[in-house]
Amino acid sequence: MRACTRRHSSSGSLVAQWPLRQSAIALACGALLSQQSHAQTTIGPGTVAPFTVSSGTATVVGGTTVSTTGVAARVTAGALTLDTSQGAQAGSAISLTTTAGTAHGIYITGGSLSILNGPVNISTAGSGSSGLWTQNAGSSVTALAGGLNIVTTGTMTTGAVGAYGLLASNGTTVRSVCPT
Fold it and tell me: Which residue from 1, 142, 148, 152 has the least number of CB within 10 angstroms?
């Protein structure tokens, strides 16, 4: 086994010596720890409870359904990705459904949402509901071509609050990117 030697640059004295094999193992362990600290959460497939992404990265995979009277998916920080090409039911739709007033399919107050592959179906029923709402500055949505379908059936209320398919407010960014 060959040794790796490091000498102090000005005096030439020996500072450290260790076998290369151990340094390779140390580097590999460091890489493994680095990968573990950036773990990704997978949501689905199947019927899942409403969820919140508050840090890190979460990916909703094909064949996932969320149905609730509240907010189906909330992003307060971190990143949420919707990708029907992933998971055991790849190619199947992702469906988010809310059935009450002021409920939202996806509500983003921080962080980002990326819709990589569709179809993604969001439906809401109720006054003041939105399919997709980005609220605070710095929040962003990027939707690639592939089928984002939003259906709202809320009615107008006394306060003139209706239902919204896509609501971007307070300096947020929503982009739709079509492949060339």
Answer: 1
